[in-house]
Write a structure and sequence with these properties.
Elements (H helix, E strand, L loop, with lengths): L5 E8 L5 E9 L5 E7 H17 L4 H5 L4 E3 L1 H14 L5 H12 L3 H10 L5 H9 L6
Antiparallel strand pairs: 1-2, 1-4, 2-3
Helix pairs in contact: 1-3, 1-4, 3-4, 3-5
Length: 137
């Protein structure tokens, strides 16, 4: 069986159940790891699109709302990683929403393509420009 990257997501909530932090870790085949997290407002803004993406990938509502970290398949984990990486540097709420919705709505193949492109210089910027119709930051 072929080895795959492993992904784990942790969702932290406040006392009212609102998403306060999203943390995603990817364990690479070579043993290294990548880590990305979003806090506060950004986490709250991407919670809906991320939940839609995870639900479409077979993650149950019980896992989403639980406190335990969620183990993700490679394709769902890489799609989630792309979403978080794409919105992390953004500041404007409208752009965060556009990019998050655009990435969450991608097909599996399109997300895999952009995930590979994101590893190259300018890849994430190109994705953001595409999803926001070229509007300036």
């Amino acid at each position: 069986m072929a080895q795959r990257e492993e992904y784990r997501a942790a969702i932290e909530r406040d006392g009212d159940g609102r998403v306060q932090r999203i943390d995603l870790t990817a364990i690479e085949l070579e043993g290294g790891s990548r880590h990305i997290d979003l806090n506060a407002t950004k986490a709250a803004r991407v919670a809906g699109p991320l939940h839609d993406l995870l639900r479409a990938g077979g993650v149950s509502g019980r896992l989403w709302s639980g406190r335990a970290p969620i183990d993700l398949s490679q394709h769902v984990g890489s799609h989630a990683e792309l979403l978080l990486e794409a919105v992390k540097p953004l500041r404007r709420a409208d752009r965060i929403d556009q990019v998050a919705d655009g990435v969450a709505g991608m097909s599996r193949e399109e997300a895999a393509y952009w995930h590979a492109k994101a590893r190259r210089p300018g890849g994430l910027r190109a994705l953001r420009i595409l999803l926001t119709a070229g509007r300036a930051r």
